[in-house]
Known about the structure:
Blueprint: E1 11-16, H1 31-35, E2 38-39, E3 43-46, E4 56-62, E5 66-74, E6 94-100, E7 108-113, E8 119-124, H2 132-135, E9 143-149, E10 161-169, E11 184-193, E12 202-205, E13 222-227
Amino acid sequence: LGPRATSVPEVYLVRQADEAIITIDGRLDEPAWQRAAALSRFYVYSPEDATEVSLTEMRMLWDSEYLYLAFQCEDADIYSYSDVPNDSLWNGDVAELFFKPSHEGLLYYEFVIAPNGTVFDARYPSRGAGGANRFKSWDSGIIVATTINGTDNDHRDDDIGYVVEAAIPWEAFREAGKPSLGVEWLFGAFRYDYSKQFEEPLLLKSFPGEALRGFHSYESYGVMRFVSR
């Protein structure tokens, strides 16, 4: 993991990738990723008395075609729950991002990625419209690659961690439209970490304070701003 921020920035700056080709291979070796802002302060959602926090770093970039996502997750016991798309992947280790393009509107999106690269994605017209079981059939067209430093689903050894790299085409956000410079969205970054070290699964969130509606608590999400390089 790279240098760690001391606090969550008031606004996360999503920098342009300068139209450079980013290969989605789970490696994060393009120079653009080194220029991307790193969000590395995560807060415990559950259990409240957790004393160990798995180190996590999230980055985002954008260009004319895609919104790019990256997670680097330290994890001593990597566990992917399923290899079935849109399964309940959060029953195992996952990295998650939620996006709410409009501060006033009700539409928002969820992207969940397991260490093995399996994806759950959903488009929610509102929180009251029916939830995951109704809207998980939506297909964002996300492209995903992961790398695992260790062994998946084997608690008998000690792992190092995993990397998630993904690209979401702007067509997935067609209702919101492709953003221009200076546009701001709301976002929340999250992580589930199941481990032989923990009495309970560790759940992390990218923002401080309350999350009364769980990871769907967009009232508490941070602000992301699309900027140039």
